[in-house]
């Protein structure tokens, strides 16, 4: 392996890919969260935002990139995890790791996030596109799919909200390790800056988790 | 009877090596790949030799008993390596290094060899830096030096307390490069068991694959023994557990002479023995004596109080401390050579001033240095050693003085070689600690690493080529030759014997007994009476060993007890030879201190008139007393003096 | 002290292996861990059993031979030491101690606690060196001043003893810490810079080929490394490899 085409088949190449897609997904999360804030502010605005998101050509392109990002991250994760399992076929009878649980279980937390994602897309994305969505009016008085109500009513279910909360907590651990890990993976480590990156990662993870959790909790409680 | 030729080139001392190189015969590059060389050992000497010979294009087979060549015991050397670079501008020169080494060796080494060593010493540093050895540097980016015992210049290059490691990794890297190129084939976990001679020349070895137990034949046009020292004859030493004399001993039995075997070095600063369970001793680098002061209490009561725990070193007032090295040797103080420092500790402890339970420990105290330089500076210099000490003893040396005691550390004696590092068997070479060549009766600190690398990188490539130039038409050596068959048979018989001898005692049991006899009677000080007793005791151990030794397991698998059994069998025989050697040398010199030969103040008394020779012993067969062959030493450039460090 | 040992016993590469329990008594806290193993082996030999095979040589923490996974940690409970530097005073009377070999596909068990670590040598062989012949006719050692910080960093990386604890503790059996230590040692020195990129490419490729896992930055290796080799080295390797891969022309 000494060419850049084969770069991503090497162990380090896979790490770069993991890191890049991971950070890319982080940026998606941030935007997604900000977009969702409209759920709290104004139903009409939220509905318009979703329409914009599903119709604007640039966003459509972004969506494809996003899907590719997820797919790459996931496929790469599966390949990495498989190779890593194969590298240590026999387990210790007694094993005491010093590292954090979440750093060792990125595959597990990732898989649960994936399961969540399937559920999530099935209810919102698929539901929005192909399902029966009630109609309402936008700010100019035209018809628009009432995503707001769909989301809000979904969260009236305890089990549904609970799954969200659990998944978001795991996402938080995934990010807490993943964010700083991505920098290390591409070699960005420095005595002076790395501690800051670590703090930033934790802050990001906490912000994302709390941010996303707030929706199911808020809407569940307000609909009790 | 004089039958040993040192083969020293004619001419003035300083020109000998240049002249040798100019006159040496070479092997044409296209012929080299048809010539096989076996190198036993991957320490500094063996690793460097195998790498260099491989680079030249010879077909090299390299052997070590560890699982990787990088683990040879050279890795453990701490303090540093000498070279006459004179970077410190303190008056150093090739001649001074040569002089110091001969003097340090108590005038029992060969001038020409030592001069060559001093001459190539500077190349070693250049070479190692080019290989990426990370020696200590000053802030200006240039190499730093420290001083070492026995000399008055700063010429020791170092890499914290891990100089040996860094140098060995350098050699290992050079070796790895050749393995990758295919010029060297590496045989890890192989133990050399026998030298094979055809028509009087060394033509191969028998080795045991330690994983499969298979006994293998390996042929070559020349064989290099670089298997390290034999300090483990004492059981407790600073050597690695696997360090052994087997390769050298088999060379001896195949006709090479074993020289100066009683010249062993006892290092003054090791961590004392704590109990019967002790399996090895740990060295605290000699560099510690740069800043540490050695003392015992002036009053016996104080020593006893410390030993039984009612007082500590800190309770002893300054005036009640006896800094005995500074007292006895004001010029060199704590930096006297090792043999002198060791004997002085023994003298104090024998007189009842020892400071631990066994009565065999003295203090090495850093409080003065910490006061003068600050704790940080001391930590920067010796941090890892202090840490190592604390791990082993659970005492903090920044607060409580270290306890130290001498221990066996290095063996100056070894396989006899001529100027070309060739033994008395043509085609059989010996390098590094395994040979006897450069250190006389006492080795100065930081000069073994120098010798190992000099032999491997810079001497053997020339001298072996010179030898092999006559072998270009020999063709491949066949392992079907009857000599291989015979040697292999001998090896197998011995292995079978061990496997089938259902004795009642472990190998270690005998090893420990041998070690005790050797330490007490052929250790720091020796007497005719003691040595004669030792000979009788070792004989008894030997007989019992062959009757009672128990080796469990099977031959055709990894069997560490079987490995040990073979090594201890050889150590027992070596122990006897050492006692013979010590008995025959009626003088005190360097590491060899005969109680009968001392000055009224207890200093060693050399006898240059009768004993300035190398005692090379020739094997005469099972149960025969070996024959002493003398190589008389000629001192043409140095005037023999009583060593004085006062 | 009285102890219960649970030791991995395996006759050879083909054998399945199992944990065997041994009771030890009268163990002195001053003993080193390996001396305690010597006591066990003495007992076994006199009973006519095979002693426990384990690698060891220098017994002072520098050769990298010793390799035991003790109570779930490579080289045992203390940090910054090797198994041979571990002393029994780190345990309590009545303790149960698990002793297992390094576990990694790239380090197959040879017998009992002995594993085959020749994969490490293979990684070094493809580029863990400066390609300079040993003629001694190089330039003067002081011709190129090297900033002390760089020399010190090179030294710190070069203190790796090749013990394999990093691989043993890594949940992915990754050899990144070991490999990066060598890459980093040489990359910090002007002598090693010339080949730095090719070295990184070759060594990483070899490492992958030998069946070591990927690093997922859990950091166990750094904690367990007896020589305190830092994750900084892995980051440096990641940088070197990235730029080398991008620059490589074929
Ligand atoms: C603790 C300690 C500290 C030291 N510090 C210093 C110092 O600061 N400065 C200094 O100059 N010197 C020092 N020395 C001395 C110096 O390290 C050694 O003398 C030197 O390294 C020996 O190198 P060598 O190549 O001859 O042998 P070694 O490095 O001992 O190598 C022996 C090789 O032979 C192999 N071998 C042995 N027997 C067999 C066999 N039968 N079959 C196959 N292979 C075999 C081994 O596997 C090994 O590869 C120190 C020594 C010790 C023990
Ligand atoms: C929004 C969703 C996700 C985000 C933001 C995210 C983010 C990240 C980040 C930043 C990393 C660190 C990369 C590195 O260390 O170089 C990472 C690693 C990882 N991710 Fe994700 N991820 C997400 C979803 C997933 C999913 C769905 C899976 C799996 C099915 C997954 C599996 C993994 C695995 C196994 C790693 C470990 C790789 C490593 O640490 O090197 N992730 N993720
Ligand atoms: C609880 C918090 C969340 C809410 C309320 C929410 C809401 C929504 C809604 C309404 C949509 C469809 C409309 C749109 O495209 O914006 C959507 C799409 C999507 N969500 Fe979420 N989401 C949440 C959390 C998450 C998380 C944690 C992830 C990632 C792991 C995620 C990933 C996605 C993806 C990939 C899409 C499809 C994107 C697209 O089509 O652009 N969501 N989400
Ligand atoms: S990096 Fe540390 S743990 Fe790994 S082999 Fe080197 S010394 Fe051992
Ligand atoms: S433990 Fe393994 S996951 Fe990486 S940080 Fe060390 S190699
Ligand atoms: S035996 Fe050498 S490091 Fe432990």
Indicate the structural class of chain C.
Answer: alpha+beta
| Radius of gyration based on Cα positions of chain B | 24 Å
What is the total tally of β strands of chain C? Answer: 7
Strand content of chain C: 5-15%
Helices of chain C, by number, come to 9
Which shape of chain C, going by the Cα principal axes?
elongated
Secondary-structure-derived class of chain B: alpha+beta
Distance between the first and last residues' Cα of chain C? 63 Å
Mean pLDDT of chain B: 95
Q: Name the poorly predicted regions of chain B.
A: none
Share of helical residues of chain C: 25-40%
Low-pLDDT stretches of chain C: none
Radius of gyration of chain C (Å): 20 Å
Subunit arrangement of the protein: heterotrimer
Distinct helical segment count of chain B? 18
Give the secondary structure arrangement, pairings included.
The complex is a heterotrimer of chains A (224), B (646) and C (250).
Chain A: H1 11-36, H2 38-41, H3 43-55, H4 57-87, H5 101-104, H6 106-130, E1 135-137, E2 143-145, H7 147-154, H8 158-185, H9 194-222
Antiparallel strand pairs in A: 1-2
Helix pairs in contact in A: 1-4, 1-8, 6-8, 8-9
Chain B: H1 16-23, H2 29-32, E1 36-40, H3 44-56, E2 59-63, E3 81-82, H4 94-104, H5 111-131, E4 156-157, H6 163-181, E5 184-187, E6 190-198, E7 201-209, E8 215-219, E9 222-225, H7 246-253, E10 258-259, E11 264-270, E12 293-297, H8 300-307, E13 321-322, H9 324-328, H10 338-353, E14 362-365, H11 367-373, H12 375-393, E15 402-411, E16 414-415, E17 428-430, H13 448-468, H14 482-500, H15 507-521, H16 528-548, H17 560-584, H18 608-611, E18 613-618, E19 627-632
Parallel strand pairs in B: 1-2, 1-9, 2-5, 9-17
Antiparallel strand pairs in B: 3-4, 6-7, 7-8, 10-16, 10-18, 11-15, 12-13, 12-14, 14-15, 18-19
Helix pairs in contact in B: 3-6, 3-13, 4-5, 5-13, 11-12, 15-16, 15-17, 16-17
Chain C: E1 3-9, E2 18-24, H1 33-47, E3 69-70, E4 73-74, E5 96-100, E6 109-111, E7 114-115, H2 118-125, H3 148-158, H4 165-169, H5 176-187, H6 190-193, H7 196-209, H8 220-224, H9 232-247
Parallel strand pairs in C: 1-5
Antiparallel strand pairs in C: 1-2, 3-4, 3-5, 6-7
Helix pairs in contact in C: 2-7, 3-5, 5-7, 5-9, 7-9
The complex binds flavin-adenine dinucleotide, protoporphyrin IX containing FE (2 copies), iron/sulfur cluster, FE3-S4 cluster and FE2/S2 (inorganic) cluster (FES).
């Amino acid at each position: 392996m000494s060419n850049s085409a084969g770069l991503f088949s090497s162990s380090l190449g896979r790490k770069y890919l993991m890191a890049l897609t991971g950070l890319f997904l982080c940026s998606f999360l941030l935007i997604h969260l900000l977009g969702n804030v409209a759920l709290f502010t104004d139903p009409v605005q939220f509905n318009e935002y979703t329409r914009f998101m599903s119709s604007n050509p640039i966003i459509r392109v972004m969506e494809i990139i996003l899907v590719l990002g997820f797919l790459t991250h996931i496929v790469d994760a599966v390949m990495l995890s498989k190779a890593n399992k194969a590298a240590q076929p026999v387990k210790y009878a007694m094993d005491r790791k010093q590292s954090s649980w979440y750093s060792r279980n990125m595959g597990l937390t990732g898989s649960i996030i994936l399961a969540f994602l399937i559920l999530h897309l099935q209810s919102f994305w698929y539901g929005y596109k192909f399902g029966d969505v009630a109609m309402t009016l936008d700010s100019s008085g035209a018809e628009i799919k009432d995503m707001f109500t769909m989301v809000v009513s979904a969260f009236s279910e305890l089990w549904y909200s609970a799954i969200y909360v659990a998944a978001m907590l795991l996402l938080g651990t995934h990010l807490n390790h993943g964010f700083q890990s991505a920098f290390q993976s591409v070699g960005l480590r420095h005595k002076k800056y790395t501690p800051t990156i670590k703090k930033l990662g934790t802050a990001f993870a906490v912000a994302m988790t709390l941010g996303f959790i707030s929706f199911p909790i808020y809407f569940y409680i307000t609909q009790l | 009877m004089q039958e040993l030729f040192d083969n020293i080139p004619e001419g003035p001392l300083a020109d000998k090596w240049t002249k040798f190189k100019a006159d040496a015969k070479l092997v044409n590059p296209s012929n080299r790949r048809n010539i096989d060389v076996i190198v036993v050992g991957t320490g500094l000497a063996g690793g460097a030799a195998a790498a260099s010979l491989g680079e030249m294009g010879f077909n090299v087979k390299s052997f070590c008993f560890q699982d990787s060549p990088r683990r040879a015991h050279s890795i453990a050397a701490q303090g540093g390596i000498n070279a006459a670079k004179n970077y410190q501008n303190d008056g150093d020169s090739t001649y001074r290094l040569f002089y110091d080494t001969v003097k340090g060796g108590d005038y029992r080494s060969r001038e020409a060899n030592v001069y060559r060593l001093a001459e190539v010493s500077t190349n070693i540093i250049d070479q190692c830096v080019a290989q990426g050895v990370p020696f200590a540097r000053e802030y200006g980016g240039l190499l730093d030096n420290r001083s070492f015992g026995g000399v008055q210049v700063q010429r020791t290059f170092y890499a914290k307390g891990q100089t040996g490691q860094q140098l060995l990794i350098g050699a290992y890297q050079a070796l790895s490069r050749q393995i990758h190129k295919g010029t060297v084939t590496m045989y890890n976990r192989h133990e050399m068991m026998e030298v094979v001679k055809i028509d009087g020349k060394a033509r191969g070895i028998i080795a045991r694959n330690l994983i499969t137990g298979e006994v293998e034949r390996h042929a070559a046009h020349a064989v290099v023994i670089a298997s390290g020292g034999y300090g483990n004859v004492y059981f407790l030493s600073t050597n690695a557990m696997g360090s052994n004399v087997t390769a050298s001993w088999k060379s001896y039995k195949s006709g090479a002479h074993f020289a100066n075997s009683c010249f062993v070095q006892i290092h003054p600063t090791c961590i004392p023995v704590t109990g019967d369970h002790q399996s090895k001793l740990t060295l605290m680098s000699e560099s510690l004596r740069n800043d540490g002061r050695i003392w015992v209490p002036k009053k016996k009561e104080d020593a006893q109080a410390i030993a039984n725990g009612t007082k500590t070193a800190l309770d002893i007032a300054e005036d009640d401390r006896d800094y005995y090295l500074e007292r006895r040797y004001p010029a060199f103080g704590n930096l006297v050579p090792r043999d002198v420092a060791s004997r002085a500790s023994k003298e104090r402890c024998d007189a009842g001033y020892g400071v631990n339970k066994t009565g065999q420990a003295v203090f090495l105290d850093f409080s003065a240095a910490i006061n003068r330089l600050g704790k940080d500076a001391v930590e920067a210099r010796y941090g890892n050693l202090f840490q190592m000490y604390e791990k082993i003893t659970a005492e903090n040396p920044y607060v409580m003085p270290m306890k130290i005691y001498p221990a066996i550390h290095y063996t100056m004696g070894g396989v006899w070689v001529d100027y070309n590092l060739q033994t008395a068997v043509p085609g059989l070479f010996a390098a590094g600690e395994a040979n006897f060549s450069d250190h006389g009766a006492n080795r100065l600190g930081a000069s073994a690493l120098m010798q190992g690398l000099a032999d491997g990188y810079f001497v053997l490539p020339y001298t072996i080529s010179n030898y092999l130039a006559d072998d270009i038409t020999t063709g491949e050596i066949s392992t079907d030759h009857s000599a291989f068959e015979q040697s292999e048979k001998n090896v197998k018989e011995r292995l079978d014997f061990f496997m089938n001898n259902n004795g009642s005692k472990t190998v270690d049991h005998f090893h420990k007994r041998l070690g005790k006899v050797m330490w007490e009677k052929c250790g720091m000080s020796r007497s005719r009476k003691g040595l004669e007793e030792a000979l009788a005791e070792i004989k008894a151990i030997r007989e019992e060993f062959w009757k009672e030794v128990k080796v469990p397991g099977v031959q055709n698998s990894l069997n560490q007890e079987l490995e040990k059994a073979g090594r201890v069998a050889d150590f027992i025989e070596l122990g006897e030879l050492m006692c013979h050697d010590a008995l025959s040398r009626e003088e005190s010199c360097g590491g060899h201190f005969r109680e009968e030969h001392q000055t009224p103040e207890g200093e060693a008394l050399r006898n240059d008139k009768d004993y300035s020779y190398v005692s090379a012993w020739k094997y005469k067969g099972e149960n025969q007393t070996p024959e002493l062959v003398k190589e008389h030493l000629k001192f043409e450039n140095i005037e023999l003096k009583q060593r004085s460090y006062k | 002290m009285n102890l219960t040992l649970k030791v991995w016993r395996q006759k050879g590469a083909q054998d399945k292996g199992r944990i065997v329990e041994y009771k030890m008594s009268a163990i002195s806290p001053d003993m080193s861990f390996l001396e305690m193993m010597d006591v066990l082996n003495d007992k076994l030999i006199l009973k006519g059993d095979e002693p426990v095979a384990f690698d060891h040589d220098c017994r002072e923490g520098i050769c990298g031979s010793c390799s035991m996974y003790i109570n779930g940690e490579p080289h045992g409970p203390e940090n910054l030491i090797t198994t041979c530097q571990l002393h029994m005073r780190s345990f309590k009377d009545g303790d149960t101690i698990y002793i297992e070999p390094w576990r990694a596909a790239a380090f197959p068990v040879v017998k009992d606690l002995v594993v085959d670590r020749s994969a490490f040598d293979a990684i070094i062989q493809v580029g863990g060196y400066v390609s300079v012949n040993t003629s001694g006719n190089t330039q003067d050692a002081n011709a190129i001043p090297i900033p002390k910080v760089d020399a010190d960093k090179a030294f710190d990386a070069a203190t790796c003893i090749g013990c394999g604890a990093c691989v043993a503790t890594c949940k992915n059996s990754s050899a990144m810490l070991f490999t990066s230590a060598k890459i980093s040692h040489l990359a910090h020195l002007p002598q090693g810079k010339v080949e730095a990129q090719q070295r990184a490419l070759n060594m990483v490729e070899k490492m992958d080929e030998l069946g070591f896992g990927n690093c997922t930055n859990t950091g166990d290796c750094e904690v367990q490394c007896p020589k305190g080799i830092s994750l900084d080295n892995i980051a440096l390797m990641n940088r070197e490899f990235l730029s080398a891969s991008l620059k490589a022309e074929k």
